[in-house]
Amino acid sequence: MRTLSVDDTFDHGDFGPLHKLLGSEVASPEIPKVFETLKMRKEGAVLFADIAAPPMNLLGPALARDLVSLIQQAEADIALKVLVFRSTDPDYFISHVDVTKIEEYRQEAAKLTGEASIALLFRHLSASRLVTIAQIEGRVRAAGSEFVLACDMRFAERESAIFAQPEPAFGMTPGGGGLQHLVRLMGRARALEVMLSAQDFDADLAEKYGWINRAMPANTLGDFVRSLAYRIAKFPEAGLVAVKDRVNAIALAPIEDFRRDSDLFGEGARDPEGQSRIQAALERGFQTRHAEMDLAGLLADLNGH
Amino acid sequence: MRTLSVDDTFDHGDFGPLHKLLGSEVASPEIPKVFETLKMRKEGAVLFADIAAPPMNLLGPALARDLVSLIQQAEADIALKVLVFRSTDPDYFISHVDVTKIEEYRQEAAKLTGEASIALLFRHLSASRLVTIAQIEGRVRAAGSEFVLACDMRFAERESAIFAQPEPAFGMTPGGGGLQHLVRLMGRARALEVMLSAQDFDADLAEKYGWINRAMPANTLGDFVRSLAYRIAKFPEAGLVAVKDRVNAIALAPIEDFRRDSDLFGEGARDPEGQSRIQAALERGFQTRHAEMDLAGLLADLNGH
Amino acid sequence: MRTLSVDDTFDHGDFGPLHKLLGSEVASPEIPKVFETLKMRKEGAVLFADIAAPPMNLLGPALARDLVSLIQQAEADIALKVLVFRSTDPDYFISHVDVTKIEEYRQEAAKLTGEASIALLFRHLSASRLVTIAQIEGRVRAAGSEFVLACDMRFAERESAIFAQPEPAFGMTPGGGGLQHLVRLMGRARALEVMLSAQDFDADLAEKYGWINRAMPANTLGDFVRSLAYRIAKFPEAGLVAVKDRVNAIALAPIEDFRRDSDLFGEGARDPEGQSRIQAALERGFQTRHAEMDLAGLLADLNGH
């Protein structure tokens, strides 16, 4: 029988009385003990999944595989209602996809949806019966941003969260559904600014633009998200699902649009210009932890390759 | 012949010179002297309707009946252009529907639209030739929120206004069109947060999320709304109507979606889970003035029934 | 051979090292030396077009003609990627159309799109391969607002920018696409407030409502826009165009809606009520620089004509 991973580095104190209250439910057969890139903690009807894919939480084949397994198992666990995503890395939530392994992570995504596309994997999450909340500390760029956009709600740490959708710096378009979400959330002009500038946006500006629900100070974010998750988990599932369905019917873009964006991203990555820019970026430190602390600066210099 | 109700408790001083200027028009044949739950005051082309349904401005059969009559008569009064809704209760604008009289208030609504649904009553208001403004002091939850969302504009008192769309706490979906409006106004993630959390939102957060036009301090709100109403009333009606029509063509959800939401709400209210949660809430003080001052807290506890 | 206009009043110091860096590209054969109402400055892949149509940057036949020529030539210049619009008048960016020359400026617009409508001229700009940025100082009302709404991004000077869509004060509807954009950017209630009130909105409120990307202080706006324009201009054009196309597919209203709004505006302007209101406004100083400093006040008084 599987039991929950016990994460000794986890701050158990965070949970206080509620943790004790729900203690009898912590052990659960449905969630496997170990994911390579996700640390799990189930408390009642809430599952916390902390992304832990060092050195910088790149979305490569391993994280894609684990996300697929997590979603499959969590959806099958009828005791679960709410799924909270966090990161064990204070600087990176999900940095972006591993551009050297596009085919590989797409194949992992296909195990959930039948199509080799993280756009459809993310859209599956948006359409899931589970309520998903992203607690964002650190950077979410490109597919990282698209992942949190696929979640039902997202709250970001004011001091550390950084947002970007920088594909146009490579001559590419966002391929994971971010374009679809950003235009609907912030309108034409702000979505164009976000993408065409390939700039970093801090949490306050992301809140102003509607990219996230709210920016919050570090000392309240965790408690807020936990409290929100537990509150929602007390409500009947039928209502949660019905509301999600009705909202998605209005605001979640059609599958065809996600698929088309995904295809355009793939074409851009195979294009000589895209390849050349990706190579220039890698030479300047792209996909390394230190260099991406200021990715916006790095991307301004790809022209000279 | 009917004349306007003279409301002695009304602060006539508010109107100052303008009141005197328009004094000769205060008497009007079109608006009946007395509505049980609405206090009327007509000044030129502007009609002020103050909701007064003690003890807490529940939307039950009486208020539904009066709203229907008001709308019918106001639309038939060719001298009227602008309709301003306010509340005589500083803590409650419209609290929500009377859940013990769903069939009754729906039958009242049917007298306007032919369908037993307040969603269609509210949508009728959005599509009306009249320009509607809500001046929100106190609580607007569930159908209260949906009523102000149906108005063309809404301005809220920063110190007192409270917003919620808490149907999912009962396993139900918003049935009065609020879901349609909220998703279009604030996007998928914030609309999901609002509904799935069943939380109270203050006026500043409601403004940030786009739920209202603006939050304003108590000492300026009334003057602002009155001034805005008079300004609009000076413009030719043809232009006002044409703009509303063009805007509604883009942003007002189809009738079918309002009808479907209304049906889902009705189904949820008849469902055993919904019935059980409603009963548990009533036992804890739901639909009483005092207990609903903190409805968000009350709703967190329905699980233990 | 044509060369760039040398604008001696331009603050060359603004450009600093970047100006020197790009100096060899300042001369360009594609952009004509002189437009009557536009001062041009090309720097690399960025073209700055400063609107200079004294006394108050009215959009009449001359400015419409020059905008058409500029767009045609800029789109044909394969070295150009980004087009920045500014104003040489600190109080007026584009005031609005010249209501005494509607047929004339429409005929100029027709030279680009084949249809006598500035709505379609503006929509052409939104659909252009060029990335357009409006740096807004001073007033943009009616077609002025609609022009900046047609740009891909817009940043406004906090101290001076004023926004309005006041056509309903004349009994008319916005005819240049503004209604389409405003509803999608700020939602039903705020768009109705903007139009039905015919009020002036400052830059901070315009930012809050999503009318603009951001309001910025005068001492940073110019540098920000220039830096943004140069940054975008470094990225491959294919990606910029693909992103614009995908965004426009979601958020740019259909041609038929622009055409219909344009027709309604024309009908309103020919209507006796519209004619009468326009005449009353002209008698009160409408279309004069001084009186329009407070156009919102002027429009409140048209009733007494």
From TrEMBL, chains A, B, C:
It comes from the Bacteria. This is Enoyl-CoA hydratase/isomerase family protein. Belongs to the enoyl-CoA hydratase/isomerase family. Transmembrane segments: none annotated.
